[in-house]
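To whoever is covering the structure queue this week,

Two jobs came back overnight. Logging them here so there's a record in the thread.

Job A:
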Amino acid sequence: MSINEEVELLRQIPLFAKIEPSKLKLLAFTSERLKFKSDEELFHQGDIGDSAYIVIGGQADVILSTDRGDVVVSTVKRNDIVGEVAILCDVPRTASVKAKEDLEVLKISKDLFFRMISEFPQMSVEIMRELAARLDRTTDQLMRAVSQN
């Protein structure tokens, strides 16, 4: 994939949709493209959060380790971002992420992620929207689980 194709991919992601192409080129150029095989882990629950990942191909499961075993809480796919909570909140990874199939991602370092947020306030707004939507879905899932017991 060329740098221009990566820029077009980034433009499809709500977080980056309103960022000018020259800045997206910088992001694409400075991020690291990685490939994972099926069942390979991107990161593990409890690890230090040093980067976020944008899925550019394939799918991965978000897995929460509990006293009763591992639980798949969601699946991320093309154009989804994962791993940003740990770098935004400066906390250990809240879940593990494992490739469900062959997976390709752009890895964005913590420093680059924060630089992008500070330069583009709209990106911060989009992150807040995404996190609020995730919280709403999680709360809904929790309420359904509680009502079933």
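Job B:
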Amino acid sequence: MGVKLLHLALLLFLSNLFPTHSIAQGRKSSRAGQTFRDCTECPEMVVIPAGSFMMGSPENEPGRNPAEGPQRKVMIQKFAVGKFLITKKEWAIFAKETQRPMAGGCCWAELPGDSLKPWEMNSKASWNNIGFKQDSSHPVVCITWYDAIDYINWLSKLTGHTYRLLTEAEWEYAARAGTTTAYYWGDEASHNFSNYGTDTNFGDGCVQGRDRWLNTSPVGSFPPNQFGLYDMLGNVNQYLADYFKPSYINVPTDGSAYIIEARLSMGGDLSDMDGTSSCAYRMVRGSNFGDSPQTLRCAFRNWAPGPGATLRTYRSSALGFRVARAL
């Protein structure tokens, strides 16, 4: 059988295997900056070049905290990253095709008559019923870390490619996009470049400049960074693959995830984590629509879940994800 006939046979096989999706065709290279989709409903991906960068923040950066150090050089291999956060539309397709039940329970929801504290779980809230206005182009939120993993596993099976969450090092490398400033657009926070909150009150959205949303905004509403990625800072926090680590001491420098199970020794404001395991948490990055300029910085580190929740139960209206893909 000739090469062309073999190619045709393969395409027919794929179309029968995935009848509701069109598999991407004719892509033979993965140049830095190239964009692609592996199927018509798959997330649009951007090829990120290999390189190295200084991860963390310098000691003189305003707003810095000790968790952002010590700075160290990290090597990153070429990979692909979602151009946008995973949207409600993309999540709805996954939920429909996998017949996924609508799970309730979400903090920082704004349902009418809600008398709970913002950080308490509202059992009636879900990814499709948060209490503030969203359309299909907004990032999906109110999902657990394991929900995100289920989506990634489905996407990998659908396309035959290895999708995953970003590592913390990959995320900061992709967010900085070759820059060394506090934000990828400069050293000053600006609502013309990102959807974030006020300078003073934690959890309060802010309408100013290009930022017209108190809550989530449609993906791609602000200028991209130099790698062509949107909403790397602001809009919603993003789940990552790494276990919790309170500093960069003994963390990999090859771009891989920190996945060492360790008993945590914590005090002060984090005393509720004392004695728990590092694998009970995952790092999150990117800040969100109600966060301050300090937490919006490329180097700022955060984690989930919050107190009293687990990775299988914790959902927040300010926490979503984007995907990565091996090349």
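Note for Job B: Residues 30-327 form a domain with the paralog of FGE (formylglycine-generating enzyme) fold (CATH 3.90.1580.10).

Please reply-all if you pick these up so we don't duplicate work.
Q.
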